[in-house]
Amino acid sequence: MAKIVLSSCDFRNAESAKCIYDNLPRPINECRVLYFPNEKANEEHIKSDKFYARLSEFGFVKTNIYVFNYFSPSDFNVNTEIDVIYISGGNTFGTMKRIRESGADKIILDYVSGGVMYVGGSAGAHIATRSIEHVSKYDTETYGLTDFAGLNFFDGILICHYSATREDHYKRLVEKGETNVICLRDQDFIVV
Q: Which of 45, 119, 125, 164 lies 20 to 30 A from 170 at CA?
C-alpha cells in the first residue's frame, strides 16, 4: 500500500505541509495530483480554475492537476497516471456521500492499492479511517448517510482539530471501547 498522510490542516499548516512535501514520491512541481473537492463544490466550481489555483498555491503545476467531477464521473480516465490523491477539508459526511455516489471510492481504493499516495486533511483524513460516525459530533449535518464506514486506509479513527474542547469526546470514545483513537491538533499529522 502507498503512503498515507493524514492531518487536520494539510497544506494550510507549516508542519503538516512539510510532512506532505517530505513524503511526496517526487518533487511537488512534478507530482500528478487527483483532487476530490468537498461537498460545497458545484459543477461550475469544478469546471473553473478555482481548484487549479488553490493547488498551484501549494506547488502543484496546473498541467499535473486533475479535479474529479462528481457530476460527470465517467469523464475521468481511470488510466490516468497520478502520484497523489488529495482530499481536503469540508463536511466529512457530505464529501463521503459525493465520493460514494459517484463511484469515486472505488477509484480511490484502486489507486491507493496500486501505490498512489493519499493525502487527507480534516474531512479527507477522517474519510481515510475505518469509521466516520463519531465525526457527527462536529459535522452535525450527515447528509442522510447511514453507512459510516471510511475507506479504511487507517485502522482507527481520528479526532481532527483536537483541543481541550474535544477531550471529553475523546474520553467517551475510549470508554465505549473504541480502539486506536488518534487526536490531531492543527499542526499534527500521521504517516501510515
A: 119
Residues annotated catalytic, as ranges? 122, 161
What are the start-end ranges of the H helices in the chain?
14-23, 43-47, 50-58, 92-102, 104-113, 123-127, 167-175
**Which SS3 state, helix, strand or coil, does residue 56 take?**
helix
Is the overall model pTM greater than 0.70, yes or no? yes
pLDDT (0 to 100) of residue 1:
54
Contacts of 23 (CB under 8 A, 6+ apart): 3, 5, 117, 191
Strand partners, 190: 6
Closest CA to 89 of 10, 190, 184: 10
Rounded to the nearest integer, the mean pLDDT of the chain is 95
Binned at pLDDT 50, 70 and 90, residue 11 comes out as: very high
What local confidence, expressed as pLDDT, does residue 75 receive? Answer: 85
DSSP 140-191: ---TT----B---SBSSEEEET--GGGHHHHHHHHHTT--SEEEE-TT-EEE
3-class state of residue 77 by DSSP: coil
The CA-to-CA distance between both ends of the chain, in Å, stands at 9
Closest to 82 in 3D by CA, of 37, 127, 109, 112:
112
Task: Specify the length of the chain in residues.
Answer: 192
